[in-house]
Structure formats: C-alpha cells, structure tokens
Amino acid sequence: MERKAIFASALARAFRHPAAWLTAAAFTALLALAAALPHLGGMTGLIDHRYEPGSLVATLNETFRADNRLALDALSASSRAMLSALAFVAMLAGAFFAGGWLTLFHERREGETLRRFFHGGARFFGRFVRVWLTTLALLTLCGWVVYGDPWTSLVRDGLLGIKDPEELVSERSAVTLTWIQDGLHFLLFGLVLCWADYTRTRLAMHGGSSVFWAGLESLALIVARPIRTLRPLIALALVEAGILWLLASAQSPLEHSIGADSSLAPVLGLAAFGLLALALRALVRGARYAATTAASHELVPPIPIADPWRADVPAGA
C-alpha cells in the first residue's frame, strides 16, 4: 500500500457517508435537548412574572440566587441525575455507532448506508460494550496511578523525597510538578482511547469475540508501530480541536449580542452552531474508525481463517 496521509483519506471516507454522521449527530442533539428542556422549564417557572423582563439575560444576580436557593438546589440535583443517565445512554450509543462505522468501512459494497450502519451497530454492540467497560476500568487505573498512591510513593516520596508539594523550594517547582502530573494523565488518557479504537477495529476486522486477546494484540501493534498507528489519530484530534476553536470564535460575537431586546435570530444562530459542531464531531469520530481500519489493514498480517467479511449483509436483513 502506498504510504500516504491516512487521516486525510479517512476524513474523505467518512464524509462519503453523511447519513451515518448526521444520524449520530442528531441522536446526540436529542439527548442534549432531553437534558435542556426540563432545566429550561424549571428556570422559566422561577422567573415567570417575578422579575423585570430582560433583567436576568446577562446573569442570574445575587438577589435571584438568594430568593430561589432551595429551588435552584433541587433543580441542580435533578439536572445532575438526568445528565448522568443521559451520559450513560450516550456512551452506549457510542458503542453502537462504532459497530456501524466499522461495518461501513469493512464491507465491500456501497449503498444502503443507514441499513448497514444499524445492522453493524447491532452486530457488534455486545462486544463493544465490553470494550467500553474495559476502557473505563483502564481510565480509572490511570487516574489512580497518576493521582493516587503510586505517584505519591514513586515520585513525591521516592524521587523528590517530600511529603507535600509545599515543601518544594519554589512555587514554580510546585506548579511544574502539577503540570507534569496533569500532562502524564492526559497522555495516558489519550493512549487508552486510541487503544480502544484499535481494539474495536481488530474485533471487527477478524470477527473475534475476545476483548482480552484483541486488546493485547492492539497494544502490541501500537507499541511496535507507534508512529503509523497513532499519527493519524493525533492528526484527527487536532483537526477536531481546530474545528471547535473556529466555531467557538465565530459564535462568540453572536452570543454577546443577545440582550433583553434581541430577536429569536441570535438564539437560532447559536443552535445552528451547536448542531454544526455535533455534526463535524460525529464526522471526525467516523474518520477515526476509517483511520484505524486503514492502518490495521496495512500493518496487521492476514490470519489463517475464513474472511468474516467475505459475505455481505443480505439485502433483506
């Protein structure tokens, strides 16, 4: 295979399936709407006919917070509970969409995008949920290693010989130590997410069912070829960050223009920016699976078993 920028071709492959990334974005938007509407209703009930129209557009002042302290606490508690439930649904949806994306990129035919997308999501859902649970466990382990006892024992007590960061000779040293700690956690967090994507890709490519073995093989592949496997994912992450930064910069003037006498147009404009951001993030997410598929096909030798993708999904499935 010609050595080229995998991330660029991955973006192009994902872009050719608008039904998939628009569906994923629409589902995420519905979850956000389900979280926002009850909160909006609660706030409307607190404000309606009690305050001068437009007086709370810029901020909720101290008088409002004092007058409605108990109601705001109850509203925040109910919102947190709903957001927790919706976040759980969103992560399960991510496992489902991963199966859909990988099916689109592994099958040897085109057309009927949504049918194949949903069929693939259902086909791999159980296996990818197990990958998700393993990922959560690894992320928890990373947090414990960097912020828990291992860091304290190995770095603070062992390497630096201190009991508390305040014992360092300067505030700059304490801040630098915190930055190193946070940077290490950021690095481990990103590596675990990349490993999870390659594990899902390995399961889909070989039709396997063991998350343990697929995870070990994916880890070995990343360790053996870190540049070829991680470079496209890092490039896509930078593309996503750049997109979000541009959208945030573009919507900032619109957000600051909203006032008591504003029409509905700025609000609709902000909603459009939000939907666009969700759509582009779903597109980049699909491109990540296109990138891991391309890299895996290039770097992973064929296994001596029947090709699990030799037969396409039946037309009537």
How do the helices and strands line up, and which of them pair or pack?
Layout: H1 6-15, H2 18-47, H3 62-67, H4 69-106, H5 113-147, H6 149-160, H7 171-206, H8 211-224, H9 226-256, H10 265-299
Helix pairs in contact: 1-9, 1-10, 2-4, 2-10, 4-5, 4-7, 4-10, 5-6, 5-7, 7-8, 7-10, 8-9, 9-10
Structure in a nutshell:
The protein is mostly helical and 317 residues long. It has ten helices and no strands.
Structural commentary:
The chain has 317 residues and is mostly helical. The protein has ten helices and no strands. Helix 1 (6-15) packs across helix 9 (226-256), helix 1 crosses helix 10 (265-299) and helix 5 (113-147) runs antiparallel to helix 7. The longest helix has 38 residues, at 69-106.
- How many beta-strand segments? 0
The helix fraction, in percent, is: over 70%
Overall body shape: globular
- Low-confidence runs of at least 5 consecutive residues: 312-317
Distance between the termini: 33 Å
- Could you give a short account of the major beta sheet? none
On the 0-100 scale, what is the average pLDDT?
A: 85
Q: Count helical runs.
A: 10
Computed over alpha carbons, the radius of gyration is 24 Å
Quaternary arrangement of the chains shown?
Answer: single chain
Strand content: under 5%
Order of helices and strands: HHHHHHHHHH
Structural class of the helix and strand makeup?
mainly alpha
Entry keywords:
single chain; disordered C terminus; globular; mainly alpha; 317 residues; 78% helix
